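Hi L.,

You mentioned the student needs an example of a multi-chain input paired with its predicted structure. This one should do, with 741 residues in total across all chains.
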Amino acid sequence: MSRVGTAAQPRVISPQKRRRFFSRGDKFTLGFFIGIPTILHIGLVWFPALATIYLSFTYWTGINPQDIVWAGLANYENILFNTPIFWEALRVNAIWLGWFFVIATPLGVLLAYQIDREIRGHKFYQSAYYLPVVLSLAVTGIIWNFLLRPDGFVNGLLGLEISEAISFFGDDRYNVWVIMIMASWRHIGYIMLLYLAGLKAVDSALREAATIDGATEWQTFRKVVFPAMRPVNVIVLVITIIESLRAFDMVYIIYGGRGGLPILGVLVFENIAGEGASMKGAAYAVILFLLSIVPIIAYLNQQFKEDDR
Amino acid sequence: MLNKIAGHELDRRLLLKGAAAGGLGIAGATMLAGCAPGSSGPVSFGARTVDESPTIQLKGLVDAYTAKTGNEVTYNATEANAFQNNLSQYLQGTPDDCFQWMAGYRMQFFAAQGLLVDISDVWNEIGDQYNESYKIASTGLDGKQYFVPQSWYPWGLHFRKSMMAEIGLNPEDIYNWDQFMGALEELKGQGLIGLAAADKGGWEAMGTFDILNARINGYQFHVDLLGGREKWTDDRVKEVFRHWEMLLPYQNTNVLDLEWDGAMQLLLQKQAGFFMNGSWFGANFLEQSQEDYDDLWIVPFPEINPDHGRDTIDAPIDGFCVAKNGSNNAGGKDLIKFAGDMEGVQAQLDTGIPMTSANNGQDRSTYDAFQNQQLAVMSEAKYITQFLDRDTRPDFAGPVVGPAFQSWFKDPSSTDSILESLQSQWDALPPL
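Structure written out for the whole complex:
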């Protein structure tokens, strides 16, 4: 679109005037490329999201729309005050988040850093750690379930009968940690790859300059490389939060819908799908949504404020 | 499990394409094209199992139907838990015309939501082949029939005759709780698990709760409790858990790591003396070998409170329904009528998979010894219950009672707080 000839006019162009620059074809193309995705987005994302929020304040079996009854805050009250499994699930999700934040994600970053330095065999490590990322979490669950269930590979290798088998998934003392290791198996590779891509983009002159100034390896990473990687850091953080809160597939594959190891994602499903459908599930979904979105929005806001400064 | 769902979707899509092509469906075309289509056209059947024996049995049924009527049947199988979890979405979407389901509250709920086809006219034709109690179990809250029974099975104490004989125990002599505890102690002394138990699926232990409650507090209290007319915080319920706790030292310790088939393995491999479960798993023993099947036996759970003796039993009825949103309601009804009629029952029996049919036409003289024993266990009971998750609200049984029992296994000393929480969650349920 040419600006020639408009230079002398006021900078603010009225909408009517502007519209003339679009030909019919332009309008059609724009309408098509913006309109269709917008309709899809509203229909498939915003409508279900808003409907879920509305339904979380109702009683409904999920079948006949005329049966929807306004319930006020009853579903939320029920979850917060009468449902001990909600707090158990919250605990597991919190452990999950903490584990990813403190152990899995830093491990991924460390691996990325080591591979970026091209240590011996880095190509092999890179492929080996990235391999699990190619698999969906559901497949991860199936593989690990095959290994660790009472009649599975590991117990078989140890020569343990079903009755004596190590209860990897049943025993409360360590089933959380077994699941954490399974989830990390994939998460570490994912973070590694993201971070590796970021590291490749960091100007090597920065590092050389730091080395010439006498910075140690750790100082270079902390004071030079890490700050230079801010956009990637934000993505990694957001992914860590989302992955640990939305966890569902792997646990569902291993435990089914019932609460062997309760997590919020499974509670949403168990209460909204199947025979026991009630809008308590919608309320769980809204709680999960708030838990995921609030810290992320708060963090991003703060980041953007710093950028503006 | 997800593969199974995906496979199911694919089958349905194939079916829809088939319907669009005017009955010359892909599924139908690739099958034998020799039979002329009957009046009700191609039908689809949804099986709630992917296990070996029941699949043979159900395929026997649909093949016999096709052979008789010439109507093609598309057989879609889904793993049982996945099928249950998706049932309400399934019934609202494009379900199979006729599908496998359960009697009692679980059927009545979906009938009340208008998702099942009223098959009272089918009952008018085949009803005389069934006892009144089966008709009642097939009847919705509006007094119409929505279900045709296939088979029943009792829940009781299963054991291996050879194993008990070796130890010198005769479980058929066990009548009351003390004798039962004595037998468990004996088994423990032999280094065996007394009672194989599972609850990873969240429903397996419900059978033990049902029978303990019925034995201690009687049928009426049990039914009232599940109907919300009695309280979970009642001392009588605590008594149930006190007895249950006495069983724990004799159970395998990895209850929460095993599903029902894991516990069954303990019995099959002679690591456990007793297994409290529904007798349907006899078919799994038969899959192993005829010897294993012949070795299997069942006795009723022992008496605890002499007031109630052994007068109650969980004996769930499985069967079929017709889905209203199916593409061929008439065909679904035709198939369900065949399934309920002795002709269809015979086709299932002819597969050689053991089945105790609900149909009076099944000649009981053809029962094998284990089936006769199931019948004897059943006949001793005066009251028949379905099962906890079929006798109470679905939004209570699955999401609430299941996890509550699981957390009780983790910490049996927390009975009081678990029962309080069960009651408060019942109170918080939406009004029906």
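You could point out the following to them. Chain B has 21 helices and eleven strands. The CA atoms of residues 396 and 426 of chain B lie 7 Å apart.

Best wishes,
N.
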